[in-house]
Specification:
Length: 232
């Protein structure tokens, strides 16, 4: 049986790292990028460019603009400023897009059902995250159970980065000899700037901190990464 996976792909550091990690493991990979009227719309073009460069044969850009109408966030509204300090904790940061991962993973699962893929891959992470409840392992497992029940279809939502910190995510990219591609061509910045980004938003600060930690201790970080996932 052909081993197929569907990747929720934004062209950011995390989803691109998931893609390069998945490529040698699957016979067929489908990338899905969602157009939900996001503030940094350049991510759609970046995702298309990266998937092509990495040899992905099927890349779908799906209209999810309904989310923009319903979800009020600094990533969906130009009049809400992107914060420059982490506001996680009891109050969710303004960059949280309510329902985004619920919708994206559900739509990706419907697509997987149609193409007979057994796995959905997403780059959500509980170790280094901005307080988003839909990045937690508990949420992913609960949604996975609901989707399997609702479609009567065996499907696994895989989260390769769930327990990795950002330094280990950089190490994973380096393990696959794609550190430069992740550093220079991905778009993580909340203000839509490719590569090192604006250097002021939470996403850029977390990304830069992780890279610095990895470069300062490559051997130790790679060892801790290998203890968490089986590198091939």
């Amino acid at each position: 049986m052909t081993k197929k996976a569907v990747i929720v792909f934004s062209g950011g550091q995390d989803s691109t790292t998931c893609l390069i990690h998945a490529l040698p493991q699957y016979d067929e990979i489908h990338c899905i990028t969602f157009d939900y009227g996001q503030r940094h719309r350049a991510e759609i073009e970046v995702a298309q460019s990266l998937s092509k460069e990495l040899g992905v044969r099927v890349h779908k850009v799906l209209d999810a603009s309904l989310l923009n109408e319903l979800a009020i966030s600094s990533l969906t509204r130009d009049n809400i400023p992107v914060p420059t300090t982490n506001s996680s904790g009891e109050k969710l940061p303004s960059t949280f897009v309510p329902g985004r991962n619920i919708l994206f993973l559900t739509l990706a699962s419907i697509y997987a059902y149609q193409v007979k893929a057994q796995t959905i891959i997403t780059g959500v992470c509980e170790t280094d995250f901005s307080g988003y409840p839909d990045c937690r392992d508990q949420f992913v497992k609960a949604l996975n159970t609901a989707i399997e029940s609702g479609m009567d279809y065996k499907l696994h939502i895989e989260t390769p980065l769930m327990w990795l910190n950002k330094a280990e995510t950089w190490a994973l990219a380096d393990h696959h000899n794609q550190l430069d591609l992740i550093r220079d061509q991905t778009l993580t910045c909340y203000n839509g700037i490719i590569g090192n980004g604006c250097k002021n938003c939470d996403a850029c600060k977390l990304r830069a901190k992780g890279l610095s930690e990895y470069l300062e201790n490559k051997v130790g970080t790679m060892k801790s990464l290998n203890e968490k996932i089986n590198l091939r």
